[in-house]
């Protein structure tokens, strides 16, 4: 039944540890912090049986919800409350972003806790980093016609694939020569703001770095350019940054 489905979702949520935005506070012990349109007195009485803890890791606020009693009691919660709480938590996890642009050619949303950088990639037209939580962004843009001409000249162009699929494969193959790829996913063909794109995730070991690195790379075909949007972090931070990396890539727009 739908009630059972929602209660299962809530019970799964109840044992998770969720990264929260610093501006979001949620405490069962303070009724005024729970949206009045979502909760009623009966539900509040049940929720006070939950144990909620907040703490910080590297300055980032986290919320832990523990359910010390049988999850069957969650069936008494209304589906609308479960949905609303889930949305509240997801909203709190999203980082604030600012739109950044380069050369009047493209723009992308970048988390406010990342600052402009130099030296991440010599060919990049945009570079941002947060050295404290180990998140990085570098974007390369190239003339599409020049790429097609050069790649075709050397007989490398696979005419059965799109321009951006060829570009993505070339860049990943070239990048893989300088690292030890441990785990690599498959290319996903997607659309980003009306443009064809290819996206891939992989993990690699890099010389001189103690931890393995998680990469999300997105290749986008614009009207006159092709773009390589690289985001990466330590593998241990993948869970913290993965969705932010996806949001960044999804926000890419040509000007």
Question: What layout of secondary structure does this protein have?
Answer:
Layout: H1 2-14, E1 17-19, H2 41-47, E2 51-57, E3 60-66, H3 79-93, E4 97-102, E5 106-111, E6 115-116, E7 126-130, E8 135-143, H4 144-153, H5 163-176, E9 180-184, E10 188-192, E11 195-205, E12 213-221, E13 225-234, H6 238-250, E14 253-254
Antiparallel strand pairs: 1-3, 2-3, 4-5, 5-14, 6-7, 7-8, 8-13, 9-11, 10-11, 11-12, 12-13
Helix pairs in contact: 1-3
Short structural summary:
By secondary structure, this protein is an alpha+beta fold. The protein has helices at 2-14, 41-47, 79-93, 144-153, 163-176, 238-250, and strands at residues 17-19, 51-57, 60-66, 97-102, 106-111, 115-116, 126-130, 135-143, 180-184, 188-192, 195-205, 213-221, 225-234, 253-254.
């Amino acid at each position: 039944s739908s009630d059972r489905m929602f209660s299962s979702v809530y019970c799964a949520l109840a044992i998770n540890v969720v990264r929260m935005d610093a501006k979001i506070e949620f405490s069962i012990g303070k009724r005024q912090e729970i949206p009045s349109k979502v909760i009623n007195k009966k539900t509040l009485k049940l929720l006070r049986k939950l144990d909620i803890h907040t703490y910080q890791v590297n300055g980032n606020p986290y919320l832990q919800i523990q359910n010390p009693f049988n999850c069957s009691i969650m069936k008494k919660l209304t589906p609308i409350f479960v949905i609303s709480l889930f949305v509240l938590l997801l909203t709190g996890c999203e980082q604030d972003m600012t739109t950044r642009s380069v050369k009047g050619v493209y723009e992308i949303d970048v988390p406010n806790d990342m600052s402009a950088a130099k030296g991440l990639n010599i060919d990049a037209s945009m570079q941002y980093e947060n050295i404290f939580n180990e998140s990085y962004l570098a974007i390369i843009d190239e003339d599409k016609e020049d790429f097609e001409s050069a790649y075709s000249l050397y007989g490398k162009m696979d005419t059965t694939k799109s321009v951006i699929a060829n570009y993505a494969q070339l860049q990943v193959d070239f990048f893989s020569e300088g690292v030890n790829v441990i785990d690599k996913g498959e290319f996903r063909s997607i659309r980003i703001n009306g443009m064809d794109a290819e996206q891939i995730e992989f993990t690699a070991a890099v010389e001189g770095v103690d931890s393995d690195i998680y990469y999300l790379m997105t290749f986008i075909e614009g009207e006159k350019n092709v773009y390589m949007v690289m985001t990466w972090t330590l593998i241990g931070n993948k869970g913290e940054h993965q969705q932010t990396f996806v949001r960044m890539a999804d926000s890419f727009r040509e000007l």
